[in-house]
Design a protein that fits this description.
Elements (H helix, E strand, L loop, with lengths): L7 E3 L4 H9 L6 E4 L5 H6 L7 E4 L9 E4 L1 E5 L4 H9 L8 H8 L4 H6 L2 H5 L12 H6 L28 H7 L3 E6 L2 E6 L19 E7 L5 E8 L10 E9 L5 E9 L6 E2 L1 H7 L6 H12 L12 H20 L4 H13 L1
Parallel strand pairs: 1-3, 2-3
Antiparallel strand pairs: 4-5, 5-8, 6-7, 6-8, 9-10, 10-11, 11-12
Helix pairs in contact: 3-4, 4-8, 9-10, 10-11
């Protein structure tokens, strides 16, 4: 049985109190915990061993969802609560991709505990890293924790662990911003700027900062969808994800588009060239095929998750095509069934 290491627990009631605790600590000694669905298993595997945990569940302001000039979601809102709120807005809601992404995370029990902020800041994953301590010790550890070599690509100068957050690609596709708070004050950055392509230092958030909220702008006339590839229909992390958002005029012209890939690098990858190719034209089969091919080009899947590399590369084109066809209004029920059969046979 894997047990948690000893740690001290703090339970502040305000963001300011939590920020003061972080400011007084050395990097890595104190970590934030909300639902604990990612951090606590990591601690059991000794991937992360903080001396102090700062619990955020008692901070009321982190659990609020408010409407205004867009949508503001507290980082402590559970994934289940987020799904309920977004589904209540109806099928025409432009934030549909975020609701779908949150609904696809893990299982109902874990969504009841896991939070939006926790999923956005989810640790990167790798077959060589996500093992127990004894297994990792037997291979002389890896670059991400206690070792010096990335076993995915031994000549790589950086860790290639994969970004496996479901909600971050959707937030980037929806042009979201995040608010980071510290004892020195607040700063707001684009959701895309929260991430860097490094398996170890995958967030630009400083050790003394708290992700307090996510803000989605008004997206009148936009629609969005989220597609996720995983071996099982539930529980598993994404092996590939596609978040797509689009604004189509009454005459069928694409006025705006964003496509973001997940689980193909150490950060979500924006397929900006593919999205730009759609703007100004109609969403024809030819346009979708062209955009899907362009979107697959920046995808660099590595041999550190599930399925074979070549198949995952092909799946990128197919999933982008499916997302765009769903935005066009195609009936995708049979397509989803065929994808399930292909996944089972891989």
């Amino acid at each position: 049985m894997m047990r948690l290491p000893d740690f001290r627990f703090e339970a502040p009631r305000t963001v300011a109190e939590a920020a003061d605790l972080l400011a007084a600590a050395q990097p890595g000694e104190t970590m934030l915990v909300a639902g604990g669905t990612d951090l606590l298993p990591n601690m059991k595997r000794r991937q992360q061993t903080p001396r102090t945990l700062v619990g955020l569940r008692r901070i009321e302001e982190l659990r609020r969802i408010s409407n205004g000039d867009g949508l503001r979601i507290g980082a402590g809102v559970t994934l289940s609560a987020l799904v309920r709120d977004l589904r209540s807005r109806g099928a025409a809601d432009p934030y549909g991709a975020l609701g779908q992404a949150a609904a696809y995370v893990a299982t109902p029990q874990l969504r009841n505990m896991g939070t939006l902020g926790g999923n956005v800041c989810l640790d990167t994953r790798c077959n060589y890293y996500d093992q127990n301590y004894e297994w990792r010790k037997a291979i002389d550890f890896c670059m991400k924790k206690d070792g010096a070599v990335c076993w995915v690509a031994t000549s790589s100068p950086r860790c290639l662990a994969v970004s496996s957050t479901d909600t971050a690609p959707a937030l980037i596709a929806l042009d979201a911003e995040v608010t980071l708070a510290s004892a020195a004050g607040e700063r707001r950055i684009a959701a895309a700027d929260l991430f860097r392509n490094d398996g170890i230092h995958y967030l630009t958030r400083r050790h003394d900062e708290i992700l307090t909220s996510v803000r989605l702008p008004r997206l009148d006339g936009w629609r969005s969808v989220y597609w996720k590839l995983r071996r099982r229909g539930a529980f598993d992390f994404p092996v590939l994800s596609v978040a797509a958002a689009m604004k189509i005029t009454a005459d069928g012209t694409v006025e705006g588009a964003r496509i973001v890939l997940g689980a193909v690098a150490s950060r979500p990858v924006e397929a900006a060239d593919a999205a730009a190719a759609l703007i100004g034209g109609r969403l024809s089969d030819e346009a979708i095929a062209n955009a899907s091919e362009r979107a697959a080009q920046p995808a660099r899947p590595m041999d550190n998750t599930d399925f074979t590399l070549l198949w995952r590369k092909r799946a990128t084109r197919h999933f982008v095509s499916c997302a765009l066809r769903e935005l066009r209004g195609d009936d995708m029920r049979e397509v989803k069934l065929s994808i399930g059969a292909a996944r089972a046979g891989n």
